[in-house]
Design a protein that fits this description.
This protein has eleven helices and ten strands. The protein has about 250 residues and is α+β, with helices and mostly antiparallel strands. It has two domains: about 170 residues, Jelly Rolls, CATH 2.60.120; about 70 residues, Winged helix-like DNA-binding domain superfamily/Winged helix DNA-binding domain (Arc Repressor Mutant, subunit A, Orthogonal Bundle), CATH 1.10.10.10. A four-stranded antiparallel sheet has the order 2-6-4-5. Strands 1-7-3 form a three-stranded antiparallel sheet. A three-stranded antiparallel sheet has the order 8-10-9. The longest helix is centred in the middle third of the chain and has 27 residues. The protein is globular and about 55 Å long.
Length: about 250
């Protein structure tokens, strides 16, 4: 499959753009490979590139005093890393950390801002995505405050599976503890419970989802709420139909 068609069929924000707008944007992009746990931005650091994940995902992490941290957002092929640029802000408010290895499209800031000014369709899609991202941040804050670790872990695994496009992906207990903002022993206990229920298997950092329906039942309502927000605002079905048209064109 040609490069341009391949990336169109995977990043949903790009797939939602009209053909001419998408072709102009792709002309400024380069394909890069994101590696697990790599840091893309640090808080307060100047944003040099925007990223459109393909089969990869990026965590937005906020740090507190000491070593405390919490994942507050997750970006996969439904979105873009670099959204503060839309608001005229050139620095990152979060630590941007690669959660799932894989390809992404990278674009320098000057070219992105040029296309953003030129394309009303890109502005519209990113405005909608910004709403979805803000909703995700709020949902995560509530989830962290009110829900138990096991339900939060199930939600996190489901969100990761959605973006990894695979039943198996690599993540360590240390990384999970970092993302969920809890002690490692809490993650180990929650993961062991999910394994005993035969919802997942875990071996040397490789997690496999065995029973997705069961994992959704074990998850808190936050996972479904986020999917409903995305479907309603960004029109998941519309994007899927667009992707199918591209594949067969």
């Amino acid at each position: 499959m040609p490069f341009k068609q391949q990336v169109n069929t995977i990043n949903r924000l790009l797939a939602a753009l009209p053909g001419k707008d998408r072709e102009r944007l792709l002309a400024h992009c380069e394909l890069v490979e994101l590696m697990f746990a790599d840091v893309i931005y640090k808080p307060g650091e100047l944003i040099l590139h925007v990223y459109f994940p393909i089969n990869s995902s990026i965590s937005l992490v906020t740090r507190l005093e000491g070593s405390a941290s919490l994942e507050v957002g997750l970006i996969g092929n439904e979105g873009m890393l670099g959204i503060p640029l839309m608001l005229g802000v050139e620095v990152s408010p979060f630590l941007a950390l690669v959660q799932s290895s894989g390809p992404a499209l990278r674009m320098n800031v000057a070219s992105f801002l040029q296309e953003l000014e030129r394309s009303a369709a890109l502005q519209r899609e990113l405005n909608l995505y910004l709403y979805v991202l803000i909703s995700q941040l709020a949902q995560t804050a509530a989830c962290t405050r009110f829900h138990v670790v096991e339900a939060r872990l199930a939600r996190w695994l489901l969100m990761t599976q959605d973006r990894a496009h695979s039943d198996t992906f690599h993540v360590t207990h240390v990384f999970l503890a970092y993302m969920l903002g809890v002690r490692r022993v809490g993650v180990t206990k929650a993961a062991s419970s999910l394994q005993k229920q035969k919802l997942i298997s875990y071996h040397r950092g490789d997690v496999t989802i065995l029973d997705r329906d069961g994992l959704e039942a074990a998850s808190c309502r936050c996972y479904r709420a986020e999917k409903e927000t995305y479907d309603h605002i960004l029109g998941y079905k519309r994007n899927i139909h667009h992707l199918e048209d591209l594949v067969h064109s």
